[in-house]
Design goal:
six-stranded antiparallel beta sheet, globular, mainly beta, Immunoglobulin-like, about 525 residues
Length: about 525
Amino acid sequence: MKITLFFIFLFYSIYLSGQTWERTITSFSDVYPSELLETYDKGFILGAGIGIGNLIKIGWIIKMDMNGNIMWDKKIGNGSNLFYLNGIDNSNDGGLIFTGTTDTLNHDQWDPYVVKMNSCGEVEWCRIFQTDQKTEFGTKIRSLPDNSYAMLVYDWKKDMSQGTFLYHLSQDGELIWEQEYFVQDTVIRTEYPRSLELTSENDFLITGYCYYPDSGQVTPWWLRPMIILADSSGEAVIELYWGYSLHFGGEAFQTVSCDNGFYTCVSDYPYPPDTGFKPAIIKTSVTGIPVFFHDIIENTKWGKASTLDKISDSTFFAGIWYSYSDVVGSLSVAKVDTNGNLLKEKVIKQTEFIPRDAIVTSDQKYLITALDYQGNDLVTRLWKLNMDMEYDSIYTQPHNYDSLCDHAIPSETLFFPCDVIVSTQENELKAERAKMVVYPNPGHEEVHVKLPEIIQLQTSTTNFNIRTRLHKWYEDLTFQIADFSGKVILNRSVRPDEKEILIQVSGFNTGLYCFILRYKGNIVGIEKVLIY
């Protein structure tokens, strides 16, 4: 891939005050944090964005050592187009995979993108998933054990509601399947998926919020935590708008999977006549039943718990923010037990911004980031604590970073072409691509069977109707011809790479036949054909 470099003069500063482990990231414009990673060499990656005007137009990947010193950085986009970075993860080969939203194809209808970098920070490939009908956002991305990727996407539909999608991408960024959630639910409104995590069983755990009325009502819609658990094929196991039967409203951010259930950090929103928004923890059973909610800090006027990390089997660190008035509040790290009780608190800063992300490192340190003001500018700050919730010390021993790269990694601004995958089309177009086409019909002597480009499966469980679209498949299809009585007179396998097959029908009796295509036993195509 040919890479064009545009160098923009950007500034960043590092600030260490006394015993406070604090870092400040600044630029020529506002800097917004997105996600934190620990890398294979024990350094850190901060995924961020640089605002230009009222949009976050430049994606920013910043590599830091264990002390928070910036080693190199990559700016994604030249600022003339939107290239917002929203989610980032380590790839299994020591590189990076990241996603976000771009308007490079259409200034009015934005599209999700995915970029893969190698261990030297060089772009290996870029994919844009295009649709001309709606705006879609790449939210989070995770590397999977087989070197493929899962990407969380949401979109604005024609009626201005939002949908939640999970894409499974190949090692090269090609779309394998896509799943949409809450497909049959006509009551849910404004789904917003925020986080995507893998469980120990390699299931997908999605957290966000939606609007849903109380049980037995159709209005009004209350803000609810939204939790989705999907198996490794993307099929929903749990689809939950938390609290609709408990008179509970809230905004969810991140979920941690434990052996006895799922714990989610939320903002507890009040039902009238109650007042006050509180940072809270909710628990969900492994079968998707709400267990409890508990406010971490009580009697607050404003408050949110926006990050959650497991410290032990019985404790979590929650990144929280709260205020007892309309002025600035406290950004804190709260140590809580599995009942949501506050065990210890470390107030980090008085600010009006919530924690954006946090991680627990391999050497049991805690790194947390948030947006903040520095004068009139918006900057990104990071703080690092130990497990006693004291600020970490500075490391003085030499350490080898970026050992998988055979040369020094430069800081640079990248603007590069992306391959376009037209995958997120409107339903009627997807339906056309999912059809098996038989011609000529009526047929004589021989007929052609054009196989579908997409396999669309409709399955049902006890609780859900599930729609799966496969853009790639790796098992043979089964093609059958049945006569009018239902007797199967032809049965053959169809390889995944076959696009069209030729069927000799000269020996068939004149009559009406059913041409059937199956995938794993499920009918994915059926056509009536007249043979004469």
